[in-house]
Amino acid sequence: MRFIMILLLIFGFAWADKHEGDNHHYYKKDFTFLELSDTQKVSLKQILEDYRTQMRNYKQYERNQQKQKQDIFLSNNFDASKIIKVNQDLSTKASTIEGNFLSKIHKLLNTQQRKKFVNYIDEWEID
């Protein structure tokens, strides 16, 4: 039993050792892998605060739009074009927020950082 425990412990250290120096992106919406300068970090903080505010507003708007969709569905005269319009409005608003955010990030990052960031761009897509 001791032999198995020691063997597992050795394999555990060997596996952990392999990944210790890797510069992988581990957390969703994490920017540490970009190795930002102090100036970039300050700018990024403001960009993220603006983004969070816009997302809070969007989520409230989305809840209101969902309520509107429910009301449309429950009405005696269902109009599919109204549902389509609500969905289009939601999509447009989400696309605008995402586009503005990515535009700011693009201006902030240098070419090498953009190459790294593009691998995680889908994390910033608004569902």
Could you describe the 3D structure shown?
The chain has 127 residues and is mainly alpha-helical. The protein has one domain (35-124). The chain is 72% helix and 0% strand. It is built from four helices and no strands. It has helices spanning 2-19, 38-74, 80-108, 111-117. Helix 2 (38-74) runs antiparallel to helix 3 (80-108). It is flat. The chain starts with a helix and ends in a 10-residue tail after the last helix.
Structural descriptors:
mainly alpha, 127 residues, 4 helices
Note the run of SSEs as H and E.
HHHH
Q: What overall geometry do the principal axes of the alpha carbons give?
A: flat
Beta percentage is under 5%
Taking the sheet with the most strands, its summary is: none
Task: Give a brief outline of the structure.
This protein has 127 residues and is mostly helical.
Describe the protein's topology.
Layout: H1 2-19, H2 38-74, H3 80-108, H4 111-117
Helix pairs in contact: 2-3
